[in-house]
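Reply to dn_fold:

You asked what the input looked like. This is it:
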Amino acid sequence: MKRSMLMLLALPLLSITMVVAQNGKQAQQTVGHGSPYAGGDEGARDPSFQAFRQQFIGALHRHDVAFVRNILDPQIRLGFDGDDGLNGFDREWHIGDSTSEFWTLMSALVSRGASYDAKTRTFTAPYTFYRWPRGYDSEKTFIVFDAAKVYAEPTSSSKVIGTFSKEVVQYIEWVGNNTSPPELQWIKVRATDGLTGFVRPSSVYGMYGWRVAFQKKNGQWRLVFLGKGD
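and this is what came back:
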């Protein structure tokens, strides 16, 4: 299950950086290859959530177990397999262990903005879950949030053919599986102009990837959901 965390991030292509020969010298050139994705954040609509989020980010940096336990909702949902609640959380994440992937995963999620759902009165991170780019099939596209190297082949020793950053890309195929070592896991993607290559699963985010939701209960913000899927 933990290795499947590597699939958590994905979406839009903003630019590709390539090295080209020019007048006998090497020059760096930036070429747009797809639909840019600037992302967004609705957290500022509620000052209390904004303040809470800053405290939470600080706690994540410190690996502050006490802070996290204090904000966990007693009925926290952990995906859709039914193993919910505080006991389920402990079985899943072991946050008392400083090497728990909870800290890395949560930091990545909350750093990518949050969207607000008026129906459930929750903030969900990353922003993309409720604000998927229009016109893109959520099952066939990913978002690339940060600069990600694009390789010609599914190996880090192959040629780097560009960099995807803040763009929407099309999913082609998964190389490896959830039981494969991380270094053997790749996703083949294609930009809207046809540029095709391989990126690490940790570089991309799908609509139904990992997400976290917060809801205010009795005046306190609670972590009410941490999971993936639909």
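The chain has one domain: 3-227.
Hope that clears it up.
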